[in-house]
Amino acid sequence: MKMLRVGRWITAIGLVLLAGIYVRALAYTPIEASQGLAQKIFYLHVPAAIWAESAMILVGLASIFYLFTKDPRLDRFAAASAEVGAVFCAVVLTTGPIWGKPIWGTWWTWDARLTFTLFLFLLYVGYLLLRSAVTEPATRARFAAVLGICGMCEVPFIHLSVYMFPTLHPMPIVLQPGRPKLPGSMLETWALSLGVFTLLYVGFVVQRYALSYLREQLEAAGEVGHA
Amino acid sequence: MRSPDLLRHAWAVAAKDLLVEFRSRTAILSVAVFVVLVLVVFNSARDPTAVSNVDLAPSILWVTFTFAAILALNRAFQIELENQALEGLLLAPIDRSSIYLGKLIANLVFVATIELIGVPLLALFFNVQVLPFLLPLIAVIALATVGFVAVGTLFSAMTVRTRFAELLLPVLLLPFMIPPLSWAVLATGRLLAGRPLSETLGWLNMLAVYDFVFVVLAVLLFPATVNE
User: Among residues 160-199 of chain B, which lie with CB inside 8 Å of chain A?
Assistant: First the structure.
């Protein structure tokens, strides 16, 4: 299928460029004064976090339009976006502790931002579990849409919590009012990395979408049971 | 649908549920006993020399309410599965939103009853002063309860019709319960410690916003969970 091939190509290019980001971040970007090498993880952690949250917003938007149009393509997209979002959330939750151990002296702390990122991950897991617990496709799509919209509406509460609770987590330095407080070369590396993560998100979602489509065709033909 | 009708129908649905519950009293008694048991378990798990009761009480209170509420929420649509009662309810010439509101009211009464049992027991078992802060405490409990019961009622309408319903509801609901619960725990802690009321107003505002967002959302989304 053409779409699956396109998705594979986008992902492959994204992965090659990701290797390029590693090289650029390690060899051609200055070392941060107070955090040293540990700061390098910022170039993966923050783009992954941005897409982990954005993926949930996209799931919610697709879900809203699904409830109005009942277009199965939107449901397929929401499912794909949720799976990729869960993976990116896992990346955030893995890279965070790797940075936290040398800088904070602990792998995990019950800081507002960490806690709520964990809940975002559990939200994704719940969404995927709900999908797997309903067998009938139309019901599954409707239930998933309801949960997806609720999930999207919870993201602002999660995001605002960073500003409300006393937190150890660094405040946003790129996405903030006014100019980014970051030296030019670091900002460039970061922006390139965000671009690569966007490419990876698109690549993964396209592949996952194509797989869902093929699975539905098979289900319709009665070749396999439900997933 | 005019709004007086909506509320009248909602009340009819809630009254039906509450009457069914009042006639048997099985669920409410089980949950009440459950509340007592959870509090007893907490009591044997704590070290009174290490952490004072007042510091521990907010967490105990809200963990107990969380577990009890999840048990109660499962029941709301479970009783409609027998004899396909839900189909009958859906065939009634009333707005779907009023069915949701009715279920929400019944669940709120149910959970409020549990909380009415829980708070005095907490005061008794853990020797915590609640009377001086009773009104603000009721406000915190009411605001937090509306938020998570609203989401829980919506989700239970979906989960009862899935496999492993009893397990899926807490898995879906807890990520949504945690924000209001964490605000409620913080607010309760400030109240029980005798801090001025102004310190809890921020949490109360957040709870009110959360309630508003999710009650409106649930009313709008509920029809999608039952439409065939």
Answer: 161-164, 168, 171-172, 174-176, 178-179, 182
